[in-house]
Design a protein that fits this description.
This protein is α+β, with helices and mostly antiparallel strands. The protein has two helices and four strands. It has helices spanning about 15-20, 55; strands spanning about 1-5, 25-30, 40, 65. β2 and β3 form a beta hairpin. The two termini are about 20 Å apart.
Length: about 70
């Protein structure tokens, strides 16, 4: 399973990721981060394809897409 992590404190709200997201699952948050910028949020995790287009275009490296390991519970 892939996971998208957004570091809202690194985000400066340029909106590049919002425009380049193929399934359009990113949006701007109405809340400001500590630097005074509106950051991006993932609004629909189920529709996210984890294509990493958002992470590729982010100039601030605020978005990371990684593979989450499943842990078996016994």
């Amino acid at each position: 399973m892939l996971k998208v992590v957004i570091d809202v404190e690194r985000c400066k709200g340029c909106e590049l990721c919002v425009h380049y997201c193929p399934p359009k699952v990113l949006a701007m948050s109405p809340a400001l981060n500590t630097r005074g910028f509106y950051s991006v949020v993932l609004i629909d995790e189920e529709r996210c394809t984890s294509c990493a287009a958002c992470a590729i275009v982010c100039p601030d490296m605020a978005i990371t897409v990684y593979k989450a390991e499943r842990v078996a519970v016994r």
